[in-house]
Amino acid sequence: MIEGVQATMGQPVNFKVFTTTNRGFTPEEVADKALEKFISISDTADEKIKVQALVYKEQIRTLLVFYMKEAIRSDRTTLSALLHKQGHSDIARIIEKL
Length: 98
What we know:
It is built from three helices and two strands, in the order E-E-H-H-H. With 98 residues, the chain is mostly helical.
């Protein structure tokens, strides 16, 4: 993943680059990156609030990962059905096994 701030009027651009080797990002990795944008916890926050925020963040992460996996399964089902329909059952079966 590449993150950055758009440059305007000659302002510097800051980027974070995340890479993988021979694979895409897992739902867990994507969820962690999304959570960085959704939820931040101040270092100066009261300890009880920090604990609550961390528990909430983990609950949201669990939901994000679950629904991303569901979306992946659904997309593979759609792709597999399309491939079967077009006579590419061999490729469809490979996708079904992923």
